[in-house]
Design brief:
Elements lengths: L18 E4 L3 E6 L2 E6 L4 E2 L2 E2 L7 H16 L7 E3 L13 H4 L3 E5 L2 E2 L4 E6 L2 H10 L1 E2 L2 E2 L9 E7 L2 E3 L5 E3 L2 H8 L1 H24 L2 E13 L2 E5 L8 E5 L15 H8 L14 H19 L4
Length: 299
C-alpha cells in the first residue's frame, strides 16, 4: 500500500462561483447551470465530521464515482460532464493542483429529497429493523434470517433526512407522498437496475455488494444519478471469500472508523474526536484496496 505522504485537503475556497455550500465530505460550487463538486478528505461518522481526514480519500471517491458513472451510463443517465481540470471554469484555473483528481464538473439537477437505498443482504439499520419488526421499510421478510444473510431478492428501502442529518427509513407509501407515485416507481426501478448491475460486476472483483445508496435528480424531467455512485461512502462491500452470516462482516468502507469510535467514551455529538495515525492509515488502506479491486489501479 502507498505511504501516507499526500497532503490532506479538508476544505476548499474557490473564486468566481455563484454560490458555495459544503456537505459532510464535498464542497459544491455553482457556475451557472453547472456545478463543481470537490471531494475533500473529510470523513464523517454518526453524522459528525471528524477534525482530521484521510489523505487522498477524496481522490479515491472521485475515481470510483467516475468509473461507475461511465460504466452505468447505458442504464441510467448521470450528471457527470468531466473530471479534467482543463474543462473547469477559467476562474478556478489557479487551483488546478488542488482540484485535479478530486473534482467533478457536472450538470445541475433538481435533487429528489429521498435517499434511494437497495439492499441485497441484511445489515446495518435493516438488520436492526428486522430484529424489531421482521420488516424493512414495509417489506415483510422470512423468519429466521441471520445478520448478513442474503435476502430472497434485492429490495428498495428508501430513507429521508431528519433535521439532525440522520437517515430515517421510510415506507413505500411515505415515499409516494414525497415524490408522487410515478416518480417513486421510476426511482425504485432505476435503483434496483443499478444495484443488480453493480452487484454482478463487484462479484467479479471478489466483492459482495451488500447494499448501495443512490441520489437521484431531475434534469428536464429526466431521472439522472447524481452526487456519487458505488463508493465506499455510499455502499457496503464485503469480501466474498470471507462472507459468513451470523455476525457483522469486515466491510471495505468506513466501518473501521465507526468501530474505533464506538470503542471510545464519546456521546456521538460534535465535535468528533481526532483519529489517531494508525486509524487514519488503516482507513486509507481500506479505501485504496476497494479502488484497486474495482478499478485495477491505485490512487
Amino acid at each position: 500500500m502507498a505511504e501516507l505522504v499526500e497532503k490532506t485537503i479538508l476544505a476548499t475556497h474557490l473564486p468566481g462561483a455563484d454560490s458555495r455550500r459544503s456537505g459532510k465530505v464535498r464542497d459544491i460550487y455553482e457556475f451557472g447551470q453547472n456545478l463543481l463538486i470537490v471531494a475533500t478528505d473529510r470523513i464523517s461518522s454518526f453524522d459528525v465530521v471528524m477534525p482530521n481526514g484521510i489523505p487522498g480519500k477524496g481522490k479515491i471517491l472521485t475515481a470510483i464515482s467516475e468509473f461507475w458513472f461511465e460504466k452505468t451510463e447505458h442504464l441510467v443517465a448521470n450528471h457527470l460532464l468531466s473530471t479534467d481540470v482543463a474543462d473547469f471554469p477559467e476562474a478556478v484555473a489557479e487551483h488546478a493542483d488542488i482540484l485535479r483528481g478530486r473534482t467533478m464538473w457536472v450538470r445541475k439537477a433538481k435533487i429528489v429529497p429521498v435517499e434511494c437505498v437497495v439492499r441485497g443482504y441484511l445489515a446495518g439499520s435493516a438488520w436492526h429493523s428486522y430484529q424489531e419488526t421482521g420488516e424493512i421499510c414495509g417489506h415483510k421478510l422470512p423468519e429466521g434470517l441471520q445478520e448478513a444473510d442474503k435476502l430472497p431478492e434485492p429490495i428498495f428501502t428508501p430513507a429521508t433526512k431528519a433535521p439532525s442529518g440522520h437517515d430515517i427509513n421510510i415506507t413505500w407509501e411515505e415515499t409516494t407522498k414525497i415524490t408522487g407515485q410515478r416518480l417513486a416507481e421510476d426511482l425504485s426501478n432505476e435503483a434496483l437496475k443499478l444495484y443488480q448491475f453493480g452487484a454482478e460486476y463487484a462479484a467479479r472483483c471478489g466483492f459482495i455488494l451488500a447494499d448501495a445508496k443512490f441520489e437521484f435528480g431531475l434534469i428536464n424531467g429526466e431521472v439522472i444519478v447524481a452526487d456519487e455512485i458505488f463508493t465506499p461512502d455510499a455502499s457496503r462491500y464485503w469480501d466474498i471469500e470471507k462472507w459468513e452470516p451470523g455476525h457483522p462482516q469486515q466491510s471495505f468502507d468506513k466501518q473501521y472508523v465507526r468501530d474505533y469510535l464506538g470503542s471510545l467514551d464519546w456521546d456521538k455529538e460534535p465535535p468528533g474526536p481526532e483519529l489517531p495515525p494508525e486509524v487514519v492509515g488503516r482507513t486509507r488502506e481500506i479505501y485504496q484496496e476497494t479502488m484497486q479491486r474495482l478499478l485495477g489501479q491505485s490512487s
